[in-house]
Amino acid sequence: MTLVEVAREAGVSPSTVSRILNGSAKVASDKRARVEAAIHKLEFAPNAQAQALAGGRSFSVGVLTQNLSSPFYGETLAGIERGLVGTPYHLLAVSGHWDAEQEREALNLLLRRRVDALIVLGGVIEDAALNRAAERLPLVVVGRSLDSLAERCLMTDNQAGMRQVVEHLAALGHRRIAYIGGPEEQHDAFERREGFETGMRDAGLTVVPELMLRGDYTEVSGEQAAATLLEGGHAFTALCCANDQMAFGARLTLYRRGVRVPEDLSLTGFDDLFAAKYTTPPLTTVRQSVSELGEQAAEAVLQLLASKTPSLPIHLPQLVVRESTGPVRAASPPGGA
């Protein structure tokens, strides 16, 4: 089926059909009605690539993510996809792997693909590169703050979320709390550590340097850090992880070492990934509605594409209490000499 056949069926010129499909000019309502009826009758599907070339658009939203295999970014991308449902746009995602050079290459690839807009998920690429991209096309940043693009940044109050965790553990009687943080070059990891330390001070608790370790937000790093803490000779009754994935890894180490959760040790995460409610026991964590962040990023980019100003409020995360935390019970806390 071709555009010419639609035009013949509707009794109009092919150029009229083209203008209606591309929305490039006003067409009389009777002609529009005839063309739409012909399209429906003939089951005509316009060539998206041809439309894009004609209109100077690709109908794609580029997403600079970090790791396509990560549950966090997977849920975020799923949210972006949902936010684009019902529009002519689809997403095109490329990973930067938290490496500035790879992120620059990924960004340039998306620009060469002539995406109509960009969504950037975190990353360590220099602000100047994002500022230059924002001068060329609509851009929204998730989980990262840029002073020059503050109105296009979708942020979570990570400090508030982590303070809620410490308040919860302190209320359960925990005084010696270990912490596994993320890589500090990442904005959210820095904020979560700040929130943990502030929460400890506010609760009148001491931050023990030997109980402060750093992972890389992966399950493996949580597994390894938990082993290091257990072997370190410093007792603790709760373990606070800066994301769910590290908490999943830490839980495996605790299981293999015979440390019961929460009877011997309370365990917490951050993000409330889909799997958090299905761990054994279900994980107490901080919900920042990862998929919702993706949906809001998509909605913001669509508003920018329509020459509107998006509203991007700071997300206030909420503590989700499940069975991985409980009162202090162990007479001999894990990690002691």
TrEMBL record:
Signal peptide: none annotated. It comes from Deinococcus detaillensis. Keywords: DNA-binding, Repressor, Transcription, Transcription regulation. This is LacI family transcriptional regulator. InterPro entries: Cro/C1-type_HTH, HTH_LacI, LacI/GalR-like_sensor, Lambda_DNA-bd_dom_sf, Peripla_BP_I. Pfam families: LacI, Peripla_BP_3. One of its GO terms (molecular function) is DNA-binding transcription factor activity. Residues 1-55 form the HTH lacI-type domain. The keyword tRNA processing does not apply. It comes from the Bacteria. Residues 1-49 form the HTH cro/C1-type domain.
